[in-house]
Amino acid sequence: MDVVAVDTIAAISTPPGSGAIAVVRLSGPRATDVLARVAPELGPAEPRSARLIAIRDPDTGELVDRAVVVVYPGPGSYTGEDLVEISGHGGWLGPAMVMEACVAAGARLAEPGEFTRRAYLNGRMDLVQAEAVADLIEGRSPMLRRAALRQLDRGLSDQVAGLHDALVQLEALLVHHLDFPEEDDPPFPVAGIAAEADLVVARLRRLLDTAPEGELLREGALAVLAGRPNSGKSSLFNALLGRDRAIVTEVPGTTRDAVEATVSLGGFPFRLVDTAGLRDAVDRVEQLGVAVARRYLAAADLVLLCVEDRGQLAHAELEFLEEAGRCPVVVVWSKADLAGEQCLEMPAGAAGAVCVSALTGQGMAELQALLPALVYRGLVEAPVDAPVLTRARHGRAVREALEEVEGFASALREGVEPEVASAHLGPAETALEELLGVITRDDVLDRVFRDFCIGK
Ligand SMILES: Nc1nc2c(ncn2[C@@H]2O[C@H](COP(=O)(O)OP(=O)(O)OP(=O)(O)O)[C@@H](O)[C@H]2O)c(=O)[nH]1
Ligand SMILES: [Mg+2]
To answer: Which CATH architecture has domain 132-210+388-437?
Structure first.
């Protein structure tokens, strides 16, 4: 655990640059002292009420800015400590000067995420909620934001805490069983305890099932456009993005390098990649492009195979579908405006097939609805507020708990002494406690807060 925070920290909490307002935040035991030094005319400040006041250099008394200040006394503040917000004029210089004044008055520069880290250390939120704060700031898709807001509201925390309670309850049943005099029938036969454990296993598994898609929610699913040269990949790429990002020409082999852009489809994040048309290129640059395309394809979460020809699928395309197994491949019958309604049936091995015209927009809505359904399956169907595991850390902890409880249930069934079987429950509880940050090592904390911006 961290040592008790004694420093008073300061940071500019708004993004740098021109803007109407910039907020400098102070937190720590001396926050109000620092404020008194940079705002000498303030006098005693009423908690949580806004005052317009001159901000001055504490050494020279020179006017630095006029700002609105609010004092949030601990322990009811965001950080749990005395917290001050100084909302001054935005811009390149002003906020930095207010910040300098605060440092001259005794505050030190905050590290990334240090405000939220203090909130966590002071019990204002658990680790899962702190992570949600980071996702709210960084998240670029509506669905991640929704999951993060729900997580901040303790959605995931409550679920994990509930599972932890269930484990404690299992232990209690076991103790009750062991305490019972041998001559009587125990109220909780071992088989009954094993059945209770199965229920916990099922709950843990349901939660763990959200992990692969939940993690994609943070990173964006890698959707790669592939197909023969001139099949309309770049046109589709642009149509999905809603802007002309990739070059389109009638010359086969136009795209040579991979072009990547992020886009939100149905609220779900995708990293869309346009690639060089797959063929045995003679041109050296194009050959390299094809190699890059293949690397992307190997890592893809989803492939959009653009096919212009309504005749037979080419050998390479068929081969491609056969190899696909690892991730879903959607066949996009491209240039539908030229081909009319003549779309083929879904080829074997494809996860879907849609007739699309990047030119007229025909089929685009259908395609845009299909893609999230293929990649984010469970999340698309799940109730809006269902908690989601969005980080590898979450998945590891829940998997560990799951394996231990499974071990517990099967040990009981195999006739292992209940005292011995119960050794599985401790580690399962610990895994969930670590997930919530009830017990946490500093290196885990460092990793969680490393990605925060300064001032949060
Ligand atoms: N009529 C019509 N033409 C299209 C459509 N999509 C693409 N095209 C045309 O087809 C040609 C090739 O389009 P691109 O999008 O560059 O195809 P590509 O697959 O990226 O080609 P490469 O990068 O060379 O592999 C261009 O002349 C486009 O204008 C469409 O939906 N309808
Ligand atoms: Mg192209």
So the answer is: Up-down Bundle (1.20)
